[in-house]
Amino acid sequence: MSEDRKIEETIFSKIIRKELPSDMLYQDELVTAFRDITPRLPTHVLIVPNRHIPTVDDVTADDEAAMGRMLTVARKIARDEGIEANGYRLIINCREHGRQEVPHIHMHLLGGADVGPMLAKRD
Ligand code: AMP
């Protein structure tokens, strides 16, 4: 790993370790889920691997269990929130062009209302 891609912990690691408060909905040995601090829809939950993996581009085969768990936990939380019948959107942003702000992989679970078109159309 080059110097300019140093792995530095983010606020999410502190939330996972419960050193910082969050509205945590779920935690197991692989992943943690907590409500986004700036919800864009009635349900806006972040599902993160407990291990600090900065971006999707840093995922390896060793992370497959955690990546899969993120999906099964998304499904569980969608059911707990009562949004599964109408559906929801899962988003993972990656690096600059993906507009990723926090360099610790996180899956956004968004629902409880129509999320709108997939992306704004470019001119
Ligand atoms: P992204 O742009 O995909 O990196 O999304 C980062 C998300 O983290 C944003 O939706 C923020 O609102 C959310 N966020 C930042 N800090 C916190 C925090 N302390 N607790 C919960 N969500 C946070």
Layout: helices, strands, pairs:
Blueprint: H1 11-16, E1 24-27, E2 31-35, E3 43-49, H2 64-81, E4 88-91, E5 107-111
Antiparallel strand pairs: 1-2, 2-3, 3-5, 4-5
This protein binds adenosine monophosphate.
Adenosine monophosphate binds near residues 34, 36, 37 and 100.
Fold and architecture overview:
By secondary structure, the chain is of the alpha+beta class. It has a single domain (11-111), classed as HIT family, subunit A. The protein is built from two helices and five strands. The chain has helices at residues 11-16, 64-81, and strands at 24-27, 31-35, 43-49, 88-91, 107-111. A five-stranded antiparallel beta sheet has the order 1-2-3-5-4, covered by helices on one side. A hairpin with a 3-residue loop joins β1 and β2 (31-35). It is globular and about 35 Å long. The structure holds adenosine monophosphate.
**CATH uppermost class:** Alpha Beta
**H-E string:** HEEEHEE
CATH superfamily: HIT-like
Q: Write down how many β-strands occur, each being a DSSP E stretch of 2 or more residues.
A: 5
Q: Tell me the distance between the termini.
A: 38 Å
> From the 3D coordinates, which CATH architecture would you assign?
2-Layer Sandwich
Provide the structure class: alpha+beta
Which descriptor suits the 3D outline?
Answer: globular
Q: How is the biggest beta sheet arranged? A: 5 strands, antiparallel
Q: Which radius of gyration do the C-alpha atoms yield? A: 15 Å
CATH topology: HIT family, subunit A
SS summary, helix count: 2
Name its key features.
alpha+beta; binds adenosine monophosphate; HIT family, subunit A; five-stranded antiparallel sheet; single chain; 123 residues
